[in-house]
Amino acid sequence: MSFMDQLPILIIAVPLLGAFLTPILGMMSKKLPRYTSTLFLAVSALLVALMAFEVYGGDGTPIIYTLGSSDPTPFRIVLEIDAFSVFMAIIMAGVSLAVSIYSWSFTDKYTGQDKFYTLILLVVVGSYGMTLTGDLFNLFVFFEISSIALSGLVAFRMNRGESFEAAFKYMMYSTLSGLFLLFAIALLYSQYGVLNIALLAQGITADGFTPLNKVVLALLIGDFAMKAGAVPLHMPSPYAYSESPGGISTLFMAASQAGLYGLFRASFTLFGGAISSMGYAAVGWIVIILGVLSMFIGVTMALVQKDVKRLMAYHCISQTGYILLGVGVGIAVLGDATAMDRYGKAAIEGGLFHTINNALYKGLLFLTAGAMFYATGTRNLNEMRGLGHNMKITTMFFLIGAIAISGIPPSNGFSSKLLIYESVFQFNPALSAIAMFVSVLTLASFVKVFYSAFLGPKMKDKEIKEVPSSMIFGMAILVAAILAFSLFPGLVLDTLIKPAVEALLRAWPIPGGV
Amino acid sequence: MIDMAPYITVAIIIGIGLYICMFKSNLIKIVMGISLIESGVNLFLITLGYRHGAYAPIFTMFNGGIMTLPTPQALTLTSIVIGVATTALLLAFVIKIYRHYGSIDAKDARRLKG
Description:
The complex is a heterodimer of chains A (about 525) and B (about 110). Chain A is mostly helical.
């Protein structure tokens, strides 16, 4: 077999190898782990890019990789990769690289850096695994890897009791949702005797919505909504985001988007056939309601926060709501071919475009919040002011992020929000109006942060300095991507998003064609 | 009726676990609740592959008749290993919370607000 054939498993194996090498390298030198782990992340990002060229260049059929054999059957361990999987992996690759470079200086003061980078690599393994697998049980295993590593990172600052409080909350919720995910998988296994997603989808499409399948879908949507941080299950997210050190909030957000991947994979690839053949709009409406609740409650909670990272965490929940709203409309019109062509596809495109945009600008904003904490030593907005005098680059980066998240033209946030507004308006004008209103509140909230943290006289009691160059460089990667996406939204939409939407709407072929 | 017994046990165990997670404020009890749910799910997986009077899926012991399904057992083993990791990590968090707050009651351990 050639090197290109082994790509799918290498994407998962390279960061996993890195994760277990990092503590050994950490024994040799304190600073070595940060460079080697970034190298491992860069290599796996390169592999994801190669994979993307292969998948996007193909005719749209998913690439099937069977572990330990060249003969694919659905009963082996199978990775199944289409454009949507690669799309989510690209997000993780870019964000994790920026975060690891950003953390070089941020973790300078901390001990245990080798463990820190080990956990970062494990989170990345979990996300890649969740997005690339073709097997529901592997999805569960990678879900747990990502949850356990993330809660370890949340508890990283061991001198604070608050970190453990947040980590315990997150761990408890994610373990519970992991167990119910396993229960849902067991329910599917009991009916069809397989774990392969493509084969399960075939069985579910033939059976339709039996009561047991309804339970399974409800459990899957609930579990993945928790992982993504959507509203009725958002409770641990603000704690975990605000307590995780610096760039980890960004990594956290990228990892929780693997939850969105699971939700969309479950509702399109796994249950899409059953939903469309029965014209079942209720599933779509459930996702839409989750989205609207997340949007609205997230932004209203953000308005009253004083802690800058907690504020951004609530905005993150609110932005997840936009994604769920867009894709939810797509799920609601799955059974209606004319509506799908008229606005359904545009809604899913808007949702997926917003996913990558959200990862970029929300990631950047979390990094600037980390920089604000690094410079001032506090997260309280009432205690910081006048940072713009000395932190000019961070101020500029914050402004770019704030403009993008508020959807001000010509930013990339504007293009994806416009797609969502337009398509959702044709489905139900009221939903579109709520989305626009939430966008206004988002702008108001970021104007408040900008005003109270960056403007005003200098802080008297503390000498504020610009953050070190590695933190600037980490933020600059995301800024460059935001600018590129803002300048060429059409190009991104045509080359990156549309194939992913097509892949999502297509049924997966069964490995080995059984 | 006796065929249904494992499923009823699964429902009872998961129900008790959920009750503990929702209504108890002692953090160690919450970890115990999670552990109970995990056992319930594992029992459910094992029950799916079991057939009455069947052999264990080991080929050298096999001399005719039916074998139990090995896949759910492999899944359960994986799930147990993951469960050990999560329980250990949760208990480690509880120890650390006790050191910092002097209490393992969820009502006392809430400095994070807003």
